[in-house]
Predict the structure.
Amino acid sequence: MTVKKSFIITFSFIFVFLIFTGINKANEGAASMISEASKKEAITKLIEKYGDTHKANIEKGVNQAASLWRKEDGSEKDFMNFCMNNYLADKKLREKTFKRFETNFETILGNYLKISRELSAPLQLEMGTLLPADYLFAEFSPNTHFDDDLFNTKIAFVVLLNFPLYSLEEKMDLGRDWGRLVWSEARLADMFDSRVPSAVQQKRFAAYVQADDYISNYNIYMHNITSGKYKSLFPDGLKLITHWGLRDELKSRYNDSEGLPKQEAILQIMEHIINQTIPSCVIDNNKVMWDIASNTVTSKDDGNAMTCPAENNFRYKHLLNIFNVERNADQFYSTLPTLIDRRFKKQREIPEEKVKALFESILNSPIIPKVAKIIERRLKRKLQPFDIWYNGFSERSEFNEAGLDKIVKDKYPNVEAFQKDLPNILEKLGFSKDKALFICSKVQVDPSRGVGHAMEALMREDKTHLRTRIPADGMKYKGYNIAVHEFGHNVEQVISLHDVDHYMLSGVPNTGFTEALAFIFQSRDLEFINMAQPTKETDYLAILNDLWQTYEIAGVSLVDMEVWHWLYDHPGATDAELKTAVITIAKNVWNTYYAPVFKTKDQDILAIYSHMIDAGLYLPDYPLGHIISFQIEKYLENRENLADEILRMYQTGRILPDMWMQLAVGEPISTEPLLKAAEEAADIAKNTK
Ligand SMILES: [Zn+2]
């Protein structure tokens, strides 16, 4: 995952201690106080002053500014004066003002992000024992009053009066004909499409921080797991984070002749987490043994049985908290009144119906059952539910993980060694030495507590950060594989900040596009350590792997999407009701798209994803990332220089996703390239051993 600008603008990284501010604006409501008569008067006067050619702009600007003008901003007369004094009729002045906004927002947003990142570093990085104060600083934000200040100083109203806001539909209709300046002005206006009071923002931010902290510390000590007759299934010191660590361990066992009972055990652990029957004392606790078959706990000190209550819906409480804070904010978004709207229409900028149709084209594809048969033949057994994570197609499963661990450990004993090698990775992709050195000078590698992530910079003088977990005895292959993925994010972040012509357009259309470059890097991880054997065989197997992964995460995403619709349909639900709903939805999605392939019904495994709990409808970005990245990779297949193409594509910046893709590969986002390639690959595989 990556921390993106959209998150920053949405949350505004806001949190203060409510008790000290004593202000609760949540009940203020979202209604404008400017009467129709005043708006009309302002419009008439401005047209008188500047002429009829400005009519459309004036009408739009005055209405936009009036819609968010509140009592504390001044009287109706103040509003009128503001409009008369701040409408930018002169073209040159308007352009100069816009440029000043870009410069100033780079300064403001860039520094805010830097401060937040540094204050939360003790929680995210391996910096020794946490102090109680670290949690408070992590929740503190320098831009607590960011939105308020922009409105109080009237900066926001200058934007609203002079730069038109466009809905997603309008952008889809008109944006094709816009130049770069119009696009960047539209992005400036996007920042002010709502006015959420800081008290509401603070509650929202706190709920996400708490959920993230809950997930970040949800570790299972695998060497303490027994399962009936199996007494020591997992090696010593294996501490896995839910769910990524569990899933990746499960995947790695396809290459282990004794792997099946371990995979079954991991499935059982996941079931206990989803159903919340997991004993609470086994979470992040190395002092107890847990027998997952009988679901009993014993002390490691004396071997005595312990009573330990089940986790009891705590997982779903966090999701419910996030729903409640989002719902509390809904009234302040007049054109995007649900989180579902905000995620699809504002952040992804692809209508939900199109996203769903893309996913269904994969889930319903007749190629899926063919691929399932091929997997069964390779596994020499019937499919089990956890085979949604089958990774025996990918070339790395042909290698022995211990051998890979050794290579990676020798190459990267510590963070510094990894940092130093980054330019070489880029040169292997065709970047010039200079460009590679420049990009890597903007990437800082940090030792992470969690599984790792990439964090962008929002000003050119700052660096992006690559967080990775490196054990004391050196990097492991799994950690390396993730770090390479995160490095792909960093490279995108540097190019799309430094090489895009307007600051307001810096970045990518949505997180799917940054995931695309991360996946492209990750899929070449063996190449970077001189291990890849790119034969025709690995090519077609890699395509089947792509399809199977997209099939898995598309279903998981549909669960996430349906859960959010269910939440909005049941706003008063309890955590227990939410748990039942999530499990029911997961089983329904399973029964529709997976049961016919796996020949087993009512599985709830699709509900295990941690980001469903802590990231508020983020999951659809993953399959979009797969689809987008395949489309881009397919295009890149026969290009001579990967680096030139990456640089060309990622300097486009934050226009609409379909338009970005059109410029990049010559067609809008589509699953066709993946399905077509997978069909050919399945035919080859069918006729091979
Ligand atoms: Zn990612």
In short: The pocket of zinc ion is lined by residues 1-2, 485, 489, 515, 518 (CB under 6 Å). The CA atoms of residues 88 and 191 lie 19 Å apart.
